[in-house]
Amino acid sequence: xxxxxxxxxxxxxxxxxxxxxxxxxxxxxxxxxxxxxxxxxxxxxxxxxxxxxxxxxxxxxxxxxxxxxxxxxxxxxxxxxxxxxxxxxxxxxxxxxxxxxxxxxxxxxxxxxxxxxxxxxxxxxxxxxxxxxxxxxxxxxxxxxxxxxxxxxxxxxxxxxxxxxxxxxxxxxxxxxxxxxxxxxxxxxxxxxxxxxxxxxxxxxxxxxxxxxxxxxxxxxxxxxxxxxxxxxxxxxxxxxxxxxxxxxxxxxxxxxxxxxxxxxxxxxxxxxxxxxxxxxxxxxxxxxxxxxxxxxxxxxxxxxxxxxxxxxxxxxxxxxxxxxxxxxxxxxxxxxxxxxxxxxxxxxxxxxxxxxxxxxxxxxxxxxx
Length: 370
Ligand SMILES: Nc1ncnc2c1ncn2[C@@H]1O[C@H](COP(=O)(O)OP(=O)(O)OP(=O)(O)O)[C@@H](O)[C@H]1O
Hints:
The chain is an alpha+beta fold.
């Protein structure tokens, strides 16, 4: 494997820097420290164990509440094609996907002969919560993250939702199937043009209420309403959530989400999702406040220069940039854009807080061993 600038020596990492959350573990198998309840949560342990299995890694301290871990990856375990990760709780399934997707993309053994056979896809069965607080809901993964990373970076994976599951019971199940990439790198992304909104979409999982949807749509009327709305609706008796998104003429997808909460009325939940979407539309960037940090690792792994125009830089993005830089040697540059009118078109940034995030990726590649 061409590991370019990737670290091969033992690297001590201080996971209390920046956001200091589970995101740090997912990026570089570090630790979450700057939290009210520091140490590993069960869902982080499940993620670590999954990656430990993929890499046949040496893992020490991989237990709940641990404040220090040692992780040393070895060869990819190519004798297993289906891995299983079960949070045993309503731990987020999508955060398990966040930790396992990059390693699975580069998990194929290097081809040994000139005769090139595509590697078999890897499957992971994931169990836990499909929409939980402070994590991507599964619909964000399928409707926003997947189409953007597949198009921008040239990778492929499939996600099948077998069952949805909510806090506190969990019980959700998702199958992830990843096509490992061999003999090529990820291509660099170029998300700089926001374009005009051409479509709104919404995905609703609800146990009872139509009010939730109506409230969200009412809120959306304040921005624009003469466009097609694509609705998907699912019924489940375990919980509800709503994902709204806007699609633009240049192919950007921008989301707003809210989860059911006993303390909130359905109107309030619908309104929150719409407010989040409107906030993310108004800044004029090409991604919402969540996709922003989720693209950083792929930008660093791709071959060549990636550009991303986004709204205000989140603390998750700053954390992702810091740890990705430490692990890969890639340098990110963030420039404030004073005027980017030609790219913002009808949706001008409210406060001019548009930023360009750039980096020259390392072009990680699994190459032939001849
Ligand atoms: N509504 C949402 N839509 C899409 N992505 C989301 C949403 N809410 C949170 N995320 C993403 O979930 C990830 C959360 O990372 P974070 O480190 O905060 O989580 P964590 O593992 O639960 O850690 P901790 O428990 O320490 O907070 C980030 O990548 C963030 O962008």
